[in-house]
Amino acid sequence: MRLKLFVLLALALSLLSGCGYNQIQINDEQVSAAWSDVLNMYKRRADLIPNLVSVVEGYASHEKEVLTRVTAARANVAGIKATPELINDPEAFAKFQKAQGEMSGALSRLLVVAENYPQLKADANFRDLQAQIEGTENRIAVARNRYIKSVQEYNVSVRTFPNNLTAMVMGWKTKANFTVEDEKAIATPPAIKFGQPAK
């Protein structure tokens, strides 16, 4: 009788150890930590924007359209509640990603406009803010890359056997990941014609 009980206990333990529950939990925590890092970098960028707009406005006040776009993009980003649950909702995640993409585009346009103002480019505050923005964009890229890898590990863990059985029972699904906005556009190599400006 004790031998049968011991065999059943050993079998139950071996099944539980192979179910992947702990690994899925570990991977889920890694995704959450990576997501927090992404949000931290986006917040850092959002915090720099009012100062940048203020400095640019002092030199290029008639560039209202660009300044308004940056301000509107920042407000749009701020309006999205970036909670941990966001990564479990593909639609909300896509909306967040789109808003951040618009913010990046508006910032790029603002920095291009700044190139037309030599006095602005010479301003120490502008140069410092520009360097901080560029550094933050690099940090965002690194944080997003970490998040992408963490989500990949998590998604693999909930989709492979036998972990997928545990995930199915527990209701765990794959998580949304960052995507490229216009894959077709970047899949086409640029046409290079010497002697003409790039398009």
Measured by DSSP, the beta-strand proportion falls in under 5%
Distance between the termini: 80 Å
Global Rg = 24 Å
Number of strands: 0
Describe this structure in words.
The protein has eight helices and no strands. With 199 residues, the protein is mainly α. It has one domain (20-176): LemA-like domain (de novo design (two linked rop proteins)), CATH 1.20.1440.20. Helices cover 75% and strands 0% of the residues. The N and C termini lie far apart (80 Å).
Helices and strands in order:
Blueprint: H1 2-17, H2 21-59, H3 64-78, H4 90-114, H5 118-122, H6 124-159, H7 163-170, H8 183-187
Protein traits:
199 residues; mainly alpha; de novo design (two linked rop proteins); 0% strand
Task: Summarize it.
The protein has 8 helices and no strands. It has 199 residues and is mainly α.
